[in-house]
Fold this protein.
Amino acid sequence: MLDFLEADRAFVAKANAQIFDLEAQISALRITISELSAAKEPAEQRLNAYKYPVLTLPNEIIAEIFLQYLPPYPNTPFGLIGLHSPIYLTHICGQWREIALTTPTLWRAVTLTRSMARGRLSIKGAIWFAGMCWNRSAPYPLSIHAYDYNVDNWFPIFATALPHRARWQHLELNADFRNANADTMMLLRNALKEPMPLLRTLTFYLHPPFPKPLTLRSEDVPLLHSVTLDDQGIQGFILPWAQLTSLTLTPIHSGRCVPVLLQATRLVSLTLDLIFPYLDDVPENPSVMELTLPRLERLLFFQSSDADMDFLELLATPALRCLTLPESMLEWPSSEFTYIETLEAFMSKCRSPLEELRILNPTIPEHAYRDAFPLIPSILYS
């Protein structure tokens, strides 16, 4: 019994000693904390008084920096939200959020597709976001890029842009309508029938084409000058070809290409990807001896295998400056000319030597072209 009491007394004495030591340490720490708190106050005051240079910039300069962060107009951000979208700029701080939300030019270029949100937006959310873009971008012109394999994903979002049709400046639509219902097709057709007074560029990949071609009149699209269509799209539109200065048809059956080019006499730039008209609904090429494009300065041909006619033999481009074409196009089925002779025959219809010649998929040495065309300053192989 006495041993047990003695042990308890020893433990209590030891615990009291430890508590005393800890209290002494706590007291010392409190003094240290107090000293550090007093010492840091001047530094905190200096930091609080300091303004980061970027926060001293006028709002107009910050807004311009924001514009440089986004893809240059009329290019659209990759997605509705996320990196390189205007909504990303609203997440930095309150001041920048206010600047971003009150800068209309940040919201004038939009990609309309649910999948580009990578699952982070519902269709309702995407519809709300698109509507916000239209409202905040007013009164500036709009650049719209709408695409998705499933048209039902983006068309409800695109429909929010219809009331703002008068501000459309650049429009790119790419969708597969094979599973779309008739109402969707009718809504799209009716939307494009209305006047679009600011529209300058139109890119349309439509699968399948409208059952009946849609006519856009010159008075409805007076500023339209640049068009990109594929073989399906060209069947879906009748455009004011004569006012265009830039035309891209890729891929295109040549039977559908020639009638358009006969009308598009103001073209300055032309890009063609010719394919063989193996389908029953492709018209035969008209009996055209020569197709003259008097203002054309830039001509690009791409994949031309199995094309059914010698386009270089048909074309006359007196103002041409830059030519890109596959070497295979220089082998005319109806001619025994060499590649060089074929090119010489084509260039004889130009008023002056080219400034640039680019040969795609070449088979003969580069020096052969340089020796044959010493007046062309830039001859490139790709």
